[in-house]
Design brief:
Elements lengths: L10 E4 L5 E6 L5 E8 L13 H8 L9 H9 L4 E6 L4 E8 L3 H14 L4 H20 L1 H13 L13 H5 L3 H11 L5 E7 L3 H12 L21 E6 L5 E8 L8 H12 L5 H9 L3 E10 L4 E9 L4 H17 L4 H18 L3 H15 L5 H9 L3 H11 L5 E7 L3 H9 L5
Parallel strand pairs: 2-6, 7-11
Antiparallel strand pairs: 1-2, 3-5, 3-6, 4-5, 8-10, 8-11, 9-10
Helix pairs in contact: 1-7, 3-8, 9-12, 9-15, 10-11, 11-15, 11-16, 12-14
C-alpha cells in the first residue's frame, strides 16, 4: 500500500504480516528520526494489570538478548543521538533522533528492544519501587493529580479513567510473567508501525525493516472496548487537601480523534485558552487576577474525547473563578466570534501545524500517530483549506453542543470546606 499527501510525499508500505513502514521525506536535513510504534497502552489493560503498558515501556530499556541497558543507551547517545519513549492510552512509542547516517543503528537498537527484551529479574525488582514512587509523586502534585480525578469523572470504571502509570495496588501486584505475557500478546507485527523521517529512501528503510522483523508469526491486531461517555447531569469530585492553591479542572465530553469537526474544536481551544492572548487568560488572570495559570486543553481518542479548562487559583477566589469561566463558556455559545479574533485563531492554528513539522522528530511523531491511530496521514494544505472554511456560526454551534450543563464535570483539589463546595456547585451552570 502506498499513500501520498499532496504536500509531503509520505510513503507507506504494509508487509505481509501486517507490520507497516512509514517514511517522511525531509530533504536537506542532516538529522533523522526513527520511531517504533506499538498499538497498545492504557486502554488495553484491565483493572488488575493497570499500569502494565507503562511498566513494560520502562523495562524495554533494561536489556535485550544482545544488549545490556548500558549498551542500549551508549549506542545512541555515543553518536550524539537521543533515545526516549512514552506510553499513551492507545499507543506506546520508542523513538530516537540522531544524524541521518546513524539511523540504521537507531532502527536496530529500537527493534532489538521491542523484539528481544529480556525483562531481567534484578532490573524488574529495582524498577518496581521506582514506578511506585513515581505514582506517589504524581499524586502529591495537585496540578497533575487533578487531571486524573477529571479522567475518573469523564470515564468512570473504565481504562480511560485510570491513571496511565496504574495504581499502587495494581503495580505492586505485577510480576515479570505479567509483563512478558502482555508483551507477547500485544507486541506483534500487526500492531507495529516503523516510522523514519529525514532524507532517506523509502525502499531502503523497507528492506532493513523486512530483514529485522521477518519470520515472526502473524497475529491479530489488538482491540479495546469502546468508551462509555454518556452523562445526564454534572459530576463533581472535591478532593480535600491542604494546598497553597486550589487546583481545578472543568471538563466536557467532546470529539474523537478523527471527527469531522476536530479543527473547529481546535479553534475553540485557541480562542478560549491555548495561549496568553486567549479569552480565559485575559479575563481571569490579566483583568481579574483570579488565577496565576489558566488554560484549556483537548483530549482525543479513537472513539471519544474531552475539552478541559484547568486553573490554579487562590482558594478564597475559587467560586468566583468558576463563575467567570462559566460566563466565558456561555458567551462563546451565544455570541459571534469577531472576524479579527477568528482570523488570529486560524493563523495561530496553521502556524502551529507548520512549525510542528519543521523538526524531523516532531513531524515523525505527528504523522506516525495519525497513521497508527486514525489510519490517515496529515496533509497541511487540506488542513488549511478546512480551517479557512470554518465560520464563527459553526464554532458557536459546536460550542453549544459541547458546553452544556448536563455535560459538565468538575475535579478540584484544595482546602475547600462544605460551604465553599456549595458555593462552587451553584456556579456550575452554562447559560
Amino acid at each position: 500500500m502506498r499513500q501520498r499527501s499532496e504536500f509531503v510525499p509520505y510513503n507507506v508500505t504494509t508487509l505481509i504480516d501486517g507490520l507497516r513502514v512509514l517514511t517522511v521525506p525531509m530533504p536537506g536535513r542532516d538529522s533523522a528520526a526513527v520511531a517504533v510504534w506499538v498499538k497498545t497502552g492504557g486502554r488495553y489493560e484491565t483493572k488488575k494489570n493497570s499500569g502494565v503498558s507503562h511498566f513494560l515501556e520502562h523495562m524495554l530499556f533494561k536489556g535485550t538478548k544482545r544488549r545490556t541497558t548500558r549498551q542500549i543507551k551508549e549506542e545512541i547517545e555515543g553518536v550524539g543521538g537521543i533515545l526516549n519513549a512514552f506510553t499513551g492510552e492507545e499507543v506506546t512509542c520508542y523513538f530516537s533522533k540522531l544524524l541521518k547516517e546513524y539511523y540504521p543503528q537507531a532502527l536496530d537498537v529500537l527493534s532489538d528492544m521491542v523484539l528481544n527484551a529480556t525483562i531481567p529479574a534484578d532490573e524488574f525488582c529495582r524498577e518496581k519501587p521506582v514506578i511506585l514512587e513515581e505514582i506517589k509523586m504524581y499524586r502529591d502534585l495537585p496540578s497533575h493529580h487533578v487531571h486524573d480525578l477529571m479522567a475518573e469523572l469523564l470515564w468512570p470504571e473504565q481504562p480511560l479513567g485510570w491513571p496511565l502509570a496504574g495504581s499502587p495496588e495494581s503495580v505492586a501486584g505485577l510480576s515479570r510473567s505479567d509483563l512478558a505475557v502482555y508483551m507477547k500478546q500485544h507486541y506483534q507485527n500487526a500492531n507495529i508501525l516503523i516510522a523514519v523521517s529525514g532524507n532517506i529512501p523509502h525502499s531502503e528503510v523497507v528492506e532493513r525493516v523486512h530483514s529485522i522483523y521477518r519470520g515472526r508469526a502473524a497475529q491479530k491486531s489488538s482491540v479495546f472496548q469502546k468508551a462509555v461517555s454518556r452523562q445526564s447531569k454534572p459530576r463533581t469530585n472535591f478532593y480535600e487537601k491542604k494546598t497553597e492553591q486550589t487546583h481545578l479542572v472543568i471538563g466536557f465530553h467532546a470529539l474523537p480523534r478523527m471527527h469531522a469537526d476536530r479543527y473547529k474544536l481546535g479553534l475553540l481551544h485557541i480562542i478560549l485558552g491555548a495561549n496568553m492572548s486567549s479569552r480565559l487568560f485575559d479575563k481571569i488572570r490579566e483583568k481579574r487576577g483570579l488565577a496565576y495559570e489558566i488554560k484549556s486543553g483537548i483530549l482525543t481518542y479513537a472513539d471519544t474525547g474531552a475539552f478541559t479548562v484547568s486553573a490554579g487559583v487562590e482558594t478564597v477566589q475559587t467560586a468566583k473563578a468558576v463563575e467567570v469561566i462559566m460566563g466565558e463558556l456561555t458567551r462563546i455559545t451565544r455570541q459571534p466570534v469577531k472576524p479579527g479574533e477568528l482570523r488570529r485563531a486560524k493563523d495561530y492554528f496553521m502556524s502551529q501545524v507548520y512549525l510542528g513539522v519543521e523538526d524531523t522528530l516532531d513531524h515523525l511523531l505527528w504523522a506516525g500517530e495519525r497513521l497508527l491511530c486514525g489510519n490517515e496521514l496529515p496533509n497541511k494544505e487540506d488542513i488549511r483549506r478546512k480551517v479557512e472554511e470554518i465560520s464563527w456560526e459553526e464554532l458557536r454551534e459546536l460550542a453549544a453542543k459541547i458546553f452544556r450543563t448536563p455535560n459538565l464535570n468538575l475535579a478540584l483539589i484544595g482546602p475547600v470546606g462544605d460551604k465553599m463546595q456549595k458555593e462552587i456547585r451553584k456556579r456550575l451552570v452554562i447559560g
